[in-house]
Amino acid sequence: MENIRLTPLTHRGNACIALHFALDITINKILKALPCAAWSKTHKCWYIPLQEADYKAFQQSVSGKATLDTTAIRKYLKERKNESRPVKVMSTVNSAPPNSAVWRLSEENLGELKKLIQKLALKSYSESTIRTYRNEFMQLLKLLKNKPVTDLSVEDVKRYMHYAMNKEGIGENTAHSRINALKFYFEQVLGKEKFFWEIPRPKKPLQLPKVMGEQELRRLFASVGNKKHKAILFTAYGAGLRVSEVVGLKLSDIDSDRMQIFVERAKGKKDRYVMLSPLVLDILRAYIKESKPRPRVYLFEGVEAGTPYSVKSAQKVFQLAKEKAGIKKHISFHGLRHSFATHLLEKGVDVRYIKDLLGHFSIKTTERYLHVKKEQLINILSPLDSLWEKAADDIL
To answer: For residue 266, which of 337, 184, 339, 183 has the smallest C-alpha distance?
Structure first.
């Protein structure tokens, strides 16, 4: 029987569990099919998030096929408990493992990193933004070593961004994220007013949304047999939701009387209502009826009752369905949302209404999908409904 050694791992700013074992086709096949597992090219190993629900799912999947050496991960968790440091997706300095780059910073710069995170938290920035700003600010601090970040001038930051783009080779989107992080630190934490006025931003490339055609969507939906997985994909496309919004839905958010879905505190902390397709409602009812145990709080729950299905697991569901359907396009779970918007436009729905359905702050974000004639919001149907009318037997 194969032995799998579990060790702590920090991957893309997240606390994870690395899985070390000799080459084994059976174990590889199990992990490939496990939604919470992924392969790291950087660390040359499989890994799962350091979360109880994901660990239990992994443990169950390899039960009887491998033994688990948990010595290292148990030692790590014990150290974290003794130091009173929470183990979760990292948004704070103190949750970083002892061997990470955070603890190799100078004491002064480590203190500045803590100040940045504290300020972001006090301003109620999202976990995702805190994690992004923390990681981008860390890139500068690692380069500075013992040089205090507080001593940097505008010219120093200009030279650093030139180095990051030309020597490190970061792209335009990463450059914008890094500038945003540094701007927040120097202006919001240190109070240096208009510190970044003289620092130019690289122009972002105009990227058109990647979408799937109706035939591809039919094949995608038809390839999924698991009712929970099918419900996740139908809900995402049928209402144009982000993956985080889908897994964050609660049972109470589904309003079958008004045929609406309530999306609470989505991107930008905005609440909104989106349409509830009759087909999505039928799919959800069928899924819940057969669920054992039935979900208690969230519409899609993880292994542990009362906790949401993970974003990573939902993304894995989409990728596996895409592969099974033979779709070769390089498209992610977010492509369901892009397809929703594009298909509405093709059916004549005004871009301003689609902006509200997608929850965009600016009409410019939605205008990537082109302009079409005006229709009334009350008459907007989910594109999933027309897809169903053409091939109900194939995709249900």
So the answer is: 337
Question: In this predicted structure, what is the pLDDT of residue 355?
Answer: 67
Considering the candidates 80, 134, 178, 360, report the single residue annotated as catalytic.
360
Question: First vs last Cα of the chain: how many Å apart?
Answer: 40
| Banded model confidence at residue 204, pLDDT cuts 50, 70, 90 | low
Burial 152-184 (b: 16+ CB within 10 A, else e): beeeebeebbeebbeeeebeeebbbbbbbbbbb
pLDDT digits (tens, 9 = 90+) for 86-144: 434 344 555 555 455 555 678 899 889 999 998 888 887 877 888 899 999 999 998 89
Active site residue 369: yes
56, 192, 334, 368: the catalytic one is 334
Average pLDDT across the chain, whole number: 80
Please name which of 279, 328, 300, 278 lies closest in space to residue 226, comparing C-alpha atoms: 300
* DSSP tally for the chain: helices H, then strands E: 16, 8
Query: Which domains are delineated in the chain?
Result: 2-82 (3.30.780), 105-189 (1.10.150.130), 214-395 (1.10.443.10)
Q: In what order do the strands lie in the sheet with 272-275?
A: 254-255, 260-263, 272-275
Continuous H helices in 83-209: 107-122, 127-144, 154-166, 172-183
Cβ 92 vs Cβ 119: under 8 Å: no
User: What is the pLDDT averaged over residues 193-199?
Assistant: 64
Q: Is 343 a catalytic residue?
A: no
- Distance (Å, whole) CA 314 – CA 300: 10
pLDDT tens-digit map of 24-47: 888 988 898 887 888 887 778 899
324 is catalytic: no
Token pair of 162, please?
Answer: 């030139």
The reply to whether 360 belongs to the active site is: yes
The residue-averaged pLDDT of 229-241 equals 91
Known catalytic residue at 162? no
The radius of gyration of the chain's CA atoms, rounded to the nearest angstrom, is 23
Catalytic residue among 230, 242, 312, 322: 242
- Is 294 marked active-site? no
What are 364-378's pLDDT values in tens digits?
Answer: 554 554 433 333 334
Encode 32-43: b = buried (16+ Cβ within 10 Å), e = exposed: eebbbbbeeeee
